[in-house]
Sequence to fold (247 residues):
Amino acid sequence: MMELMFVGIFIGTMSGFFGIGGGMILIPMLLVLGFNIKTAIGISIIQMVFSSVYGSYLNYKRGSLIIGEGLYVGLGGFVGGYIGGYVTEYISDEVLQFLFFSLLIFALFRLFFSQNHEDDSQTKTLSVMLLFSLGVGIGIFAITLGIGGSIILIPLLVGVLHYPIKKAVSAGLFFVAFSSVAGMISRLSSGTIDFQNGLIVATASLLGVTLGIWLKEHISSKNHKVALLVLYIFALGMLVKKIWFSY
Fold:
């Protein structure tokens, strides 16, 4: 139990600082602790609900979260997340691990080659239907893998729509709130979620979220991007280690 509490605080800090649900770090850590990937995905979804809702509330209070377009992407993420919660049961552990690995490679590549934008002057926009469709697609893919989807959304916002990275981080965590709630509802209805361990991790993550958001407000955008790249590499390394030893 103590291990899960410390994991929750750590993941919550990562969630608040990077705007992620935390699944891309939490799942490899749970695999190392001995959980199978489908149980790890369920625990991750519960944690994401707690950290993303609370973190979005804190970001809104601080003025770093502007609802706007994020609402349409989020609603799409809710629909996609609900579907994704059922899809998991029909995909093998090996395929899930391969998809997770591919997703991390894509996010690392897209973020690395993106330019830094300090303000909204070059921010592009999309139609409401395209934003909603984007949310659906990310939601299905993300919740199937037990992640919130922001590791896909943030590189797209920064690299394609030219969002300032801190605005993209806040929007990413807001998206996670929609996709993770939908994913948890669908997973609970199918009885495939470890609620007891999930609540331990999720409750502990709230303390970490508060710390992570405070840290985010006290770091430059350039250093924030570097830290995000390091996070992706760390998660990739943990997953490679798990896959290597499993074979």
Remarks:
- The chain has ten helices and no strands.
- The two ends are 29 Å apart (CA to CA).
- The CA atoms of residues 99 and 227 lie 23 Å apart.
- Residues 37-62 form the longest helix (26 residues).
